[in-house]
Structures are given as structure tokens and as C-alpha cells.
Amino acid sequence: MRYIGMLELQHTLTEYWSLGTAVAAFYLPVTIMIILYSRVYWETRKRRKEFGRLQASQVRISRKFWANLLAHRRQFLGLFSAQVTQQTPFVHVVYAIL
Fold this sequence. Notes:
- By secondary structure, this protein is mostly helical.
- It has one domain.
- The protein has two helices and no strands.
- The protein has helices spanning about 1-85, 90-95.
- The chain is rod-shaped.
- Residues about 90-95 have low confidence and may be disordered.
- This is G-protein coupled receptors family 1 profile domain-containing protein.
- Keywords: Membrane, Transmembrane, Transmembrane helix.
């Protein structure tokens, strides 16, 4: 009678051990991966929205910047070409860049 009780106890412990190792080896890592990947997904989504807003404001700033830069270049080249009586190849290159 005692021997049968030990076998039943051993069988029960083996079942618990199997369940515990399955949880530790598969379900726990899967759960952690799902949590981490979902956090990465939501953070990426949030940053994409912020980047879209940032990029739109930078386009406006860059348009003003380039407009001012071109105006200053044209003004500088106008002063420069007024000082040069004869157009040199350098002036042609500068005009070609614009």
C-alpha cells in the first residue's frame, strides 16, 4: 500500500514538474516577448507621429531659410558683378551653381 502511494506521489510531482518546465521554457518567454514587442510597436508609432509633425515644421522653416539664403546670394552676386567690369569664368560658374 505504501509503495502505491509513493508511485502516485511521484506521478503527481512529475506532472507538476512537466507543467512548470513548459511554463518556464515556453510560455514565460513568449509572454515577455509579446509585452516587449508591443511596447516597441507603440513607441515606434508615437515617434512616427512626432516625426511627421517635426518634419512638417522643418519644411516651413527650410523654405524660409532657402528663400533668405538665395536672396542674400543674389544680392551678393549683384554687388560682385557690379564691381567686375568683365565677366570672368568664375562668375559664370557662380551663376551656374544658382
